[in-house]
Amino acid sequence: MSNQYPITGAGLGLRRAFIGPLADSVPEVIDFLEVAPENWIDIGGKFAYQFRKVAEQRPIVCHGLSLNIGGFAPLDEAFVRKVKQFLDTFNVPVYSDHLTYCADEGQLYDLMPIPFTEAAVEHVANRIVRVQEILGRQIAMENASYYAAPGQEMDEIDFINEVLKKADCLLHLDINNIYVNSINHNYDAEQFLKSLPGERIVYAHIAGHYVEAEDIRVDTHGADVIDPVWQLLDTAYQHFGVFPTLLERDFNIPPIDELLKEVITIRHYQDKYQVASHEQKRQQS
Prior knowledge:
Elements: E1 10-13, H1 19-24, E2 32-35, H2 45-55, E3 60-63, H3 77-89, E4 95-98, E5 101-103, E6 107-112, H4 118-135, E7 140-142, H5 156-167, E8 170-174, H6 175-184, H7 189-194, E9 201-206, E10 210-213, E11 216-218, H8 227-240, E12 245-247, H9 256-284
Parallel strand pairs: 1-2, 1-12, 2-3, 3-4, 4-7, 7-8, 8-9, 9-12
Antiparallel strand pairs: 5-6, 10-11
Helix pairs in contact: 4-5, 8-9
């Protein structure tokens, strides 16, 4: 795996439902863990103690839920400063959020689609730049799942690429979201994937989803990862090289041993290309 990445290997989204078993000893197959900072910033008691124990064993990355980067409400700079303190306290190397909006005169408790327009590119990029100024670091934005595209003036891929370039931020690549969107909006998932800027990828998500109908997928993170999504991850490694990848599971959470099987699957895909890369270098030497 390239040294460009601040973390390496295969990770797992840390949930309170299974933090207990991890606090004493994080399994060797987990290289890093991810949390939503707003769920942990002000927490105390048992969970705070367990979180500190986990953070002493593995790198922690942060994937936020409430930055509201596409919203029109003023950027919550006080919140961003609290995030900065959290990142600094736990030596968090990566902070990302969703390329969505989630508030309008109050929290919407959902991740809503930003219109794919030039005006939205300008609006979003300016807000990302301000967050990066406060944090003193680049952040990463995740390509989001969406179920409608109001006011669309440009393709999703062009919107994402323009935002990343204009804000000079990183890409948090979500493999499952590409697959879900490709079904819901009838586009080629591999072509979309290969049109993203690989040099901006900082790490990736992989997850399961719900089949609502033949042409409708819902991004629930509540099921096992299916074969077409694994194959899309395989294509991503083949095209971009191996990058850190994390399993998300938010609902219908199975026992930790079941989750670890999918983390191990991530590692198997990574090993496949790392072994091939080492062999190619050996032959060239």
